[in-house]
Specification:
176 residues; alpha+beta; Arc Repressor Mutant, subunit A; 3-stranded antiparallel sheet
């Protein structure tokens, strides 16, 4: 698969090849699960890493279990896409401090890495923006563990670790 580039992402952060939700329910188990919640008049509020149900219902155990099993798929489908400014910040951080390695490096997940970008830029960045940026830059990615929304990459951050010791590198915002 070819890496993405910033031209594949619209100004509001939606990846061009991503299927918009308004084109219809996704096929399979996730679509059936969302249809069942709609029939029960239960509405989902999706945050970056969790799902809230409104009104807060007492769900049957099997439905609760299916929600838990497909949480990551539902969040990926319904969560807001990362904004292009966040992705550009992450791309710039990766180009400046990231070094590709031959193997995946599990010591830092995307969630930890996004905090390094925030520390460097003094701006908020989502986990999804960092993952998108790493894929754009051609890094390999794998889920941190089954069902995780975090990823690990073939990425060394030695340049970041030595650079953050220098004055002016951390909390030196990069403005667009």
């Amino acid at each position: 698969m070819n890496p993405l580039n910033l031209n594949d992402i619209t100004d509001d952060g939606v990846i061009v090849w991503q299927r918009p939700l308004w084109l219809g329910r996704p096929p399979g188990v996730v679509g059936q699960l969302l249809d069942e919640l709609q029939r029960r008049r239960i509405w989902l509020k999706v945050y970056h890493d969790r799902i809230r149900l409104r009104p807060s219902p007492r769900l049957p155990a099997d439905l609760r279990e299916r929600l838990r099993d497909h949480k990551a798929d539902i969040i990926c489908l319904l969560a807001p896409a990362p904004r292009s400014e966040e992705i550009r910040l992450c791309v710039q951080w990766l180009r400046r401090f990231g070094v590709p390695t031959r193997t995946l490096r599990p010591e830092h997940s995307s969630y930890a890495l996004k905090h390094f970008v925030e520390q460097w830029s003094d701006q908020y960045v989502t986990n999804g923006a960092f993952i998108a940026a790493a894929l754009i830059e051609g890094y390999q990615a794998k889920a941190d563990f089954d069902g995780s929304l975090n990823a690990v990459f073939n990425l060394s951050i030695r340049k970041w670790e030595s650079a953050k010791e220098q004055p002016g590198v951390v909390a030196n915002p990069l403005r667009f």
